[in-house]
Specification:
With about 650 residues, the chain is of the alpha+beta class. It contains 21 helices and 22 strands. α10 runs antiparallel to α17 and α17 packs across α19 (about 580-610). The chain binds adenosine-5'-diphosphate and magnesium ion.
Length: about 650
């Protein structure tokens, strides 16, 4: 840091420029706009910069305000070498050190006067409550207490310029930079504004003012004349000799909260602020917002509906598959090559009882036998099995109940009649439960009547032409042998059928020392079903992804238009101290908000539509997973498609952004 020369105040000058050069590249050629500017402005000075149009005044001002960087030369701001500052530090310095007053006011049209004034406070982390209090105080001090809630289009030019002055004072920056502030005002309003600016100077602020009006320049203490990018004169005015009027109390400018208090909640405040601004921006363009959202709504709704249809058909398919017995394996005696089939016994059934995914093991012994009730005689299949039969098979009790483990243990002479057998023996349809019938002459007590689930009530189904007795009873009283004709194994899900089959084969081989049995499954059907399900799911997924993609591109498109349309706003925010990531966060928040809101509406719409959709026999079934999925997808779309426009916005050059139309 250089020792202050000349002034002898011991304090570093507000501005110290040495040999500042600025070149602009255009079309390969480089034009020198500033030709080595040397300038020293003490803290508390009131300086006017005058010169013809195009002489480089605004360029110089932009460099002073850290909006632009010089091509060469040295710039010390309050004793700090500016070239060492990172972009974020520059933004912070813009927010804290400077107050900008622009010729064209540059207020944000969607925000109220108080919000406009408070804007710079947001970027240095003043909590919103304090910000509002201070903004209102500043507006009242400028005689705009009644205009707090008005938006700029409702204000006159003079009022807008006063709002702009209040905004420049918001962060208590010590240096006021004003570029032709009276240029858009009539003489009376211009004089009024100059009076205020002089007042600020009296309060101790450093004022640097650009003008081409000699009358305005005469009100400064010092006038610097620039022609063709070089200072040609630098003189004190007559006013500087006049004694200063007594400074007005700084009571009109409310006190700022201390720095430490601001930083603490910065992160949370950033997010809240971004959310608030995003809501404002979306509200301001509500029809466009709605159109953007429509893409997301349709995308998300179609994902929800598609997946609901998929889920409905999957459930139906699964029901159908298990009704078709695809999740059932059958083990039967008999080797592939030899004619001498082995004998399956209960021991075999027990050996495979504890296989994972195998739910019910149902051994069966069956052959045709004669049933008799009083004078009615009927021949049908008598099936000896275990109580697991009723759990494994798709049957329902019409009357009474099925025999249980105690009957099995006790070799109880009980029988459950199939619907057909029941109707043959009891044509008058009397309740057979508790009646005694004969099977091959042996007495059995009827305990229930069973039918195929979903079958016809008249017992026409082949499966209803049957009489069921406990396995142990069958061995002891009817079949007089331990040969099991078939063991069926129910697997929890047909996808596990192969694994269970392999395990059964290896266990039985170990037990029997030879493969004298065969295992049957419905592999072909399972495979066919798996293929259909996969292609169905793929198709639905593809439709969903495409619709989300289309929605996302819509969001990106609108966000890009948004960035272009709001370039000037971005410039103003940057001048007010917004860092590049504040801008990025703001635009990203807007995109995410649109997508999330669209997501919520889309989910609701999708659920509503799913309620009405039936394809063939399948009803669409909404489950939680697709809701979370489409919601997640909406969020991701927002981030992905909002990212690029947001980045584009944040990378704008503040000077270019500000000077855009
Ligand atoms: P003043 O404010 O004194 O009217 P400016 O500083 O705005 O002048 O402009 C000085 C010169 O620099 C002008 O000739 C202008 O065309 C040129 N200039 C300003 N900004 C740019 C830029 N971004 N690129 C190229 N030339 C520029
Ligand atoms: Mg200019």
């Amino acid at each position: 840091m250089d020792a202050p020369d000349g002034a002898g105040t011991g304090k570093a000058p507000a501005i110290l420029l040495r040999g500042i050069v600025k070149d602009y590249e255009s079309g390969g050629a480089s034009t020198r706009i500033l030709h080595g500017i040397d300038l020293r402005i003490e803290s508390g000075e009131f300086v006017a910069i005058v010169g013809p149009s195009g002489s480089g005044k605004t360029t110089l001002m932009n460099i002073l305000g850290l909006m632009d960087s010089p091509t060469a030369g040295c710039f010390e701001l309050q004793g700090r070498d500016v070239s060492r500052l990172t972009p974020d530090q520059c933004a912070e310095a813009r927010g804290k050190t400077f107050g900008f007053i622009f010729q064209r006011y540059n207020l944000l049209t969607n925000e109220t006067a108080a919000e406009n004034v408070g804007l710079p406070g947001a970027y240095i982390g003043i909590p919103s409550g304090q910000r509002r209090v201070r903004a209102v105080g500043l507006l009242e001090g400028l005689g705009l207490g009644h205009r707090i809630a008005n938006r700029p289009p409702q204000l006159s030019g003079g009022e807008q310029q006063r709002v702009a002055v209040a905004r420049a004072l918001m962060n208590g920056g010590e240096i006021i930079l004003a570029d032709e502030p009276t240029g858009a005002l009539d003489t009376a309003r211009g004089e009024e504004l100059m009076a205020r600016i002089r007042g600020l100077h009296r309060q101790g602020l450093t004022v640097i003012l650009i003008t081409h009006d000699p009358g305005v320049a005469a009100q400064a203490d010092r006038v610097i004349r620039i022609v063709d990018g070089a200072i040609i004169s630098d003189q004190p005015t007559e006013r500087s000799a006049e004694p200063d009027e007594p400074p007005q109390g700084s009571g009109s400018v409310p006190v700022l909260p201390p720095d430490a208090e601001r930083g603490r909640i910065a992160l949370l405040a950033d997010a809240a602020e971004a959310l608030r601004m995003a809501l404002h921006a979306l509200q301001a363009n509500s029809f466009r917002t709605f159109l953007t959202m429509l893409g997301i709504i349709i995308g998300v709704a179609s994902v929800v509906v598609m997946l609901a249809i998929g889920e409905g058909s999957r459930r139906d398919m699964q029901k159908w598959m298990s009704r078709m017995g695809t999740n059932v394996l059958r083990i039967e005696p008999g080797a592939k090559m030899s004619a001498s089939g082995g004998i399956l016994t209960l021991q075999d059934a027990r050996a495979i009882a504890d296989i994972t995914h195998a739910q019910e093991i149902v051994p069966r012994v069956f052959s045709a036998r004669t049933l008799r009730y009083r004078d009615r005689i009927y021949a049908c299949t008598v099936l000896a099995t275990t109580p697991s039969f009723i759990r494994a098979e798709n049957r329902v009790m019409v009357r009474g109940g099925f025999f249980d483990e105690r009957d099995e243990e006790a070799k109880a002479p009980v029988v459950v009649l199939g619907m057909k057998a029941y109707l043959e023996l009891f044509p008058d349809r009397t309740d057979p439960v508790g009646k005694r019938i004969l099977i091959d002459g042996a007495p059995f007590l009827v305990v229930g009547v069973i039918t195929v689930s979903g079958g016809s009530a008249d017992g026409r189904d082949r499966e209803d032409d049957i009489a069921l007795i406990p396995l142990s009873t069958g061995e002891a009283r009817i079949f007089r042998s331990v040969r099991i004709n078939q063991i069926s194994v129910t697997v929890d899900d047909y996808v596990n059928v192969e694994a269970v089959q392999d395990e059964i084969r290896s266990r039985l081989n170990r037990l029997r020392q030879q493969e004298d049995f065969r295992i049957f499954n419905q592999a072909a059907m399972i495979e066919a079903n798996r293929n259909t399900q996969n292609s169905f799911r793929f198709l639905l997924g593809a439709v969903g992804v495409v619709s989300l993609l289309v929605g996302g591109i819509g969001v990106m498109n609108i966000m890009l238009v948004n960035v272009v349309e709001r370039t000037r706003e971005i410039g103003v925010r940057m001048a007010c101290g917004a860092r590049s990531r504040d801008i990025q966060l703001q635009f990203l928040t807007e995109a995410i908000l649109v997508c999330l809101l669209g997501g919520v509406i889309g989910v609701l719409l999708g659920m509503l539509v799913s309620g009405f959709v039936t394809i063939g026999e399948s009803k669409a079934v909404v489950t939680l997973a697709p809701i979370l999925l489409s919601f997640g997808a909406a969020f991701t779309t927002g981030v992905l498609f909002g990212f690029w426009p947001a980045r584009k916005a944040s990378r704008l050059d503040p000077v270019v952004a500000l000077s855009s139309e």
